[in-house]
Amino acid sequence: MSFRTIGKYRWTICALVFFATTINYLDRQVMSLLKPMLEADSMFGLDPAHQESTYANIVIGFQLGFAAGMVLIGRWIDKIGIKKGYAASLLAWSLAAIGHAFAYGPFSFGLARVALGIPEAGNYPAANKTIAEWFPQKERALATGIFISGTNIGAIIAPIVVPWIAVHMGWKWAFILTGAIGLIWLIFWKIIYDAPANLLSKGKIQQSEYDYIHADQDRLTSKSVSESQSVPWIQLLQYRQTWAFFFGKFLTDPVWWFILFWLPAFLKEQYGLTGTALSLPIALVYSMTTVGSIFGGWLPAFFIGRGMDANKARKRSMFIYALFPLLVLSVQWLGSFNMWYAVCIIGIAASAHQAWSANIFTTVSDMFPQKAIGAVTGIGGMAGAIGGIIISKSAGLLFDHYKALGDIRIGYGIVFMICASAYLVAWLIMHLLVPKFKTIELK
Q1: With a cut of 50, which residues of the chain have pLDDT below it?
Q2: DSSP conformation class of 362
Q3: For a FRET experiment, which of 69, 148, 267, 287 has its CA 20 to 30 Å from that of 24?
Q4: DSSP secondary structure string for all residues of 234-300
Q5: Domain boundaries, the chain
Q6: Sequence-ordered list of residues with C-beta below 8 angstroms from that of 257, at least 6 positions apart, any chain
């Protein structure tokens, strides 16, 4: 059936989620891009010997806020609904992003990062619930891949725009102007978004599209827990499905956190790149990840179209994506011949992560009814943030140690080995816990 026959309003909703995710990552990445300027302005302390550790602690502050936000906001969005919850989260993180401009040292800057992390976590439970509400199962991975590609677009825009603003207007304005973009998104969200049933009653979507979206409605509603009831965390933790998502995120999200916060620092330490010189290699990495996001959603749909059941299609796709990060084992060796070899390898690994993410998020709506999606997404997001905290703290200590010994590259090599193997380990654990992704019935 064509768009003309079914209707395409659901893709407008997907576009809104895509732009929210773009803004989310644009706001998040500003600090890492301005790290040399912030160091010079004493935002990471006065002692150069401890600035890497202080930077890591500030990154951890964001991740602690993000972890707390994932648990609290995910369940809160389940209660108050997508429209209000998404809007409140984005408003809060936009104001927190602007608030960085008013920091005056490591402590206040760290507080601004915590304040940013808590509401930024709301993007993912809200986005995942939105996709589950507006898309049938067979389109959900593709729609998830599209909205996740917003992380890549935000990460591409940031190294192009942020250094330019900082050079010409000062680093404070980089935080203010990027933070203000979210306030514009809120206008479009208020005008365009509503639940499918509400828009159908207002004549804004076709009956054919509403029926298409709800073709697998029986999968989204538990027979034992009504949509008006809240699902307690303690109940969700009794299911192996929750723990499969937990460990899948715990082991693989840290890789993305590391790329996001440490890639500019790696390029500076390894190749001496700073300021606008970082723009092209970072933009290339995240341009490559856009392909991974879309392909990650397309491949399982391709397998399903060839007659493979959804569980096998998802598992096979995730296994394929888990193999590509192994290339990271060669990043420093090949990078010693040419910087662009290292940049491309990191881009491939980051692409594989986004492809993996498009599917691991979709496993939640594969395994849980609609009412639990926000809470389970929050639990997994919290696990990923905890993993990110561990890798950030470890990286900061490793890099300070090996910098003092005169060869910080050894520290990067250790972290790259961890990143390379994380996805295969995560895939194996998820497979052992949940041999088949299927919807559970909440008691």
Answers
A1: 1-3, 218-228
A2: H
A3: 267
A4: HHHTTSHHHHHHHHHHHHHHHHHHHHHHHHHHHHHHHH---GGGGHHHHHHHHHHHHHHHHHHHHHH
A5: 3-433
A6: 59, 63, 384, 385, 387, 388, 391, 392
Chain-centre distance of CA 89, in angstroms? 15
- CA 192 to CA 281: how far, in whole Å? 36
Q: Give the pair of three-digit tokens for residue 52.
A: 């890497």
Candidates 208, 292, 209, 207; CA nearest to 13 is 209
> pLDDT, tens digit, for every residue of 76-111?
887 888 889 999 999 999 999 999 888 887 888 888
Q: For Cα atoms 390, 417, 55, give the angle at the middle one, nearest 5 degrees.
A: 40
Contacts of 428 (CB under 8 A, 6+ apart): none
**b/e sequence 120-143, b meaning 16+ C-beta within 10 Å:** bbbbbbbbbbbbbbbbbbebbbbb
Please state the φ and ψ torsions of residue 165, each to the nearest 5 degrees. Answer: -60, -45
Whole-number Å distance between alpha carbons of 170 and 101: 10
First to last CA, the chain: 37
The pLDDT tens digits for 105-129 are: 788 888 888 999 999 988 988 888 8
Structure tokens, 272: 């001496």
Structure tokens at 161: 């725009």
Contact 329, 268 (CB under 8 A): no
Q: Give the span between the Cα atoms of 307 and 180, in whole angstroms.
A: 47
Return d(Cα 79, Cα 363) in angstroms, integer.
Answer: 21
Between CA 44 and CA 52 the distance in angstroms is: 8
For residue 249, the Cα-to-chain-centroid distance in whole angstroms is 10
**Nearest CA among 290, 344, 297, 288 for reference residue 318:** 297
